[in-house]
Amino acid sequence: MATSGKKTRGRQKIEMKVIEKEDEKLITFSKRRSGIYKKICELTTLCGTDILFICFSPAGKPFSFGVPSIDSVANRFFNNNTPPPNDNTQLEAHQKERINQITQYYNEASMQVDAAKDTQKILAQQASGRETNLWWETPIEQLNQQELEELESRYTNHINKLYDTLSKKVAATSNANE
After folding, report:
1. Mind listing the pLDDT tens digit of every residue in the chain (178 residues)?
2. Which of the listed residues 37, 47, 116, 127 has the most CB atoms within 10 Å of its CB?
3. 3-state class of 47 per DSSP?
4. Could you please report the per-residue DSSP string of 78-121?
5. Is the Cβ–Cβ distance between 52 and 64 less than 8 Å?
């Protein structure tokens, strides 16, 4: 009979005590905070409640989470306002705003992807059509007047650079021989 050797101990119960190491505190806080946010979302979905959650990290940074929004729940709390039963207008407005925002992000990303695809097509067409399209390889007979003038300018620049480099090397060699 073969035994199945587990590599991990699985999910273990964690003893509730203060964590001493600062790094471990921050990591645990971050993980548990996201878990609490999930539970808050579930509670609001299941019960239709408005919730405001505020806490401070071990480093002193404040975190807040509110459904439908932090402001609306805080205003209700401080003003002792109670909404009429089944009034989901704020939640619906918040959801519509979020949907519009996500749609806008999607549209922007789609446009960027389309633009990248168009650029890729253009570059592919240019690469496939470039057999002898490099400026120094194009037959002179196929160039128009403007292209010939540009070619002459490039050759002139290269010749000037060649003379400058050559004269510097000759001067350096003559100085070294003296």
Report:
1. 455 667 777 778 878 888 888 888 888 888 888 888 888 888 888 888 888 888 888 888 888 888 888 888 888 888 876 654 555 566 677 777 788 788 888 888 888 888 888 888 888 777 776 555 566 677 788 788 888 888 889 889 999 999 999 898 888 887 777 6
2. 37
3. helix
4. HHT--PPTT--HHHHHHHHHHHHHHHHHHHHHHHHHHHHHHHHH
5. yes
Q: Which two tokens stand for residue 89?
A: 């207008």
Cα-only R_g, the chain: 35
Asked if 67 and 41 count as a contact pair (C-beta separation under 8 A), the reply is yes
Using CA atoms of 153, 159, 160, 164 in order, give the dihedral in degrees to the nearest 10: 160
